[in-house]
Amino acid sequence: MPLTRRHFLQNLLLTSGALLPIGARAQPEQHYDFHFTRLMYESGDWDVDQRMPSNLLNSLVEYTNLKVDPTEHIVPLADPEMLLAPFCYLSGHKLVEFTTAEARNFRDYVNRGGFVFVDDCNHDIDGLFAKSFEAQMAELFGEDCLQKLPHDHDLYHCFFQFDELPVTSFELNGWGDDLVHDYLKAILVDGRIAVLYSNKDFGCEWDYDYRNKRWLATDNTKFAVNIVIYALTS
Predict the structure, then answer these.
(1) Rounded Cα–Cα distance for residues 13 and 30 (Å)
(2) What is the distance between the alpha carbons of residues 18 and 31, in angstroms, rounded to a whole number?
(3) Which one, 115, 156, 181, 233, has the greatest CB density within 10 A?
(4) Among 162, 185, 203, 226, which residue's Cα sits nearest to residue 52?
(5) In Å, how far are 37, 42, 143, 159 from 77, measured between CA atoms?
């Protein structure tokens, strides 16, 4: 029987004692419901949008009752430690070409119930990151593994309600491929999102000091909250 994300998280609690799904009661040494894990990979510039994690974490504190680890965890994709994270983030502008260990961990993590949010900082379907990442996914999971996500998917209403995919300022400014991408792509495992893939450059859109959020007419990090809540509860 395929391992569901719920079973995956339960197994983590039994084996590592490090991570808790939303709603679980924490033990004294297990007091965080959410950890932000950024994946470091050898081939590209993984350390982009450096203020985004703190902004996302602040939004989770502001809008949810999750007990949020305030520290961004940077873990090499080749390190088995990444297999213990219920949520991982991977981004960049350049080449994505996994080493043997990176490819093995990424494939095992996805198939065992993990969740990876992958965001293309080039916001360009013809850019190096997009082409090389999509080729890497095809190699690991088969051709056409990345499918467009419908706008009525649970991701759009699992916490905040979104009738359509938010547009980023980088798309509106005509950077990248000069397109507004009205879709996300995903690799589904047993009906749930295992890899959420964006060409919209959400990471750079959310890359500002969280204290500047008060100047925005609408908080653009709310969709990030949905992504995390979906990752923890689906």
Answers:
(1) 9
(2) 9
(3) 115
(4) 203
(5) 10, 9, 22, 29
